[in-house]
Design brief:
With 224 residues, the chain is of the alpha+beta class. Helix content is 46%, strand content 16%. It has a 5-stranded mixed sheet, with helices on both faces. β3, α9 and β4 form a beta-alpha-beta unit. α6 runs antiparallel to α7.
């Protein structure tokens, strides 16, 4: 049955307008983006199939053009639309973080990091540079590695921090395995970065690990 034949209150678009986006399931939200289904399937049915195929929305968001376009009902046009929507969300969060103290906006920081890092198949190390009022100056992907590890050089990070005249920093990297738990190497690296940056009076406020199940904060865990 086509969505237009559903009761009006059950249609994703109308449901969103009446109750807000938080009232919709992941499949319903994706269906609004898709707009149309394929032969024999409504947009919601297609959305459910896509979430099942990719395993999660974050994996769908992180798919490259070739992988994305192999799925029924998708293609380059939809890929471009989705990437534009994700980039707008990231830039909106960046604007919010540039105007406020990041320590008072932990949810925004987490959402920005999840959109940026979650679902990537390779390990990425990201740095967020902050001013004296803990507002974001810039964020940069500094290192990229394999599924197992990435090489991070404290000296290069200190150089970038000085270029931005940063007063403090937040680090983040993803675990492609999906488990957002710090390894012994993660803890050793964080200690090395803290020591290197302390030499130039730059504080490390936090280090986040982004996995499929969420985002872990070293500061909140008490291991910074």
């Amino acid at each position: 049955m086509a969505i237009t034949d559903w009761p009006e209150d059950d249609r994703p678009r109308e449901k969103l307008l009446q109750k807000g986006p938080q009232a919709l399931s992941e499949a319903e939200l994706l269906a609004i983006f898709l707009r149309t289904g394929v032969k024999g399937k409504s947009a919601v049915d297609l959305a459910r199939d896509l979430i099942s195929r990719f395993g999660s929305l974050s994996a769908l968001f992180a798919a490259d053009l070739r992988t994305f376009s192999e799925a029924p009902g998708l293609g380059p046009a939809k890929y471009a639309q989705l990437q534009a929507a994700i980039e707008m969300a990231k830039r909106g969060l960046q604007e919010e973080l540039k105007c406020s103290d990041v320590l008072s906006s932990p949810t925004s920081v987490r959402e920005f990091l999840r959109l940026t890092l979650q679902g990537k198949e390779h390990e990425v190390f990201l740095a967020i540079f902050l001013d004296v009022q803990n507002r974001v100056i810039a964020s940069e992907e500094l290192f990229r590695g394999t599924l197992a590890q990435t090489s991070v050089y404290p000296r290069e990070i200190v150089k970038r921090a000085l270029v931005h005249n940063a007063a403090s920093m937040i680090f983040a990297h993803n675990h492609p395995s999906g488990i957002a738990e710090p390894s012994a190497a993660d803890k050793t690296l964080t200690d090395a970065l803290k020591s290197a940056l302390a030499l130039v009076d730059i504080k490390v406020l936090d280090h986040f690990i982004v996995g499929r199940g969420g985002c872990l904060s070293f500061a909140e865990r008490g291991i910074l």
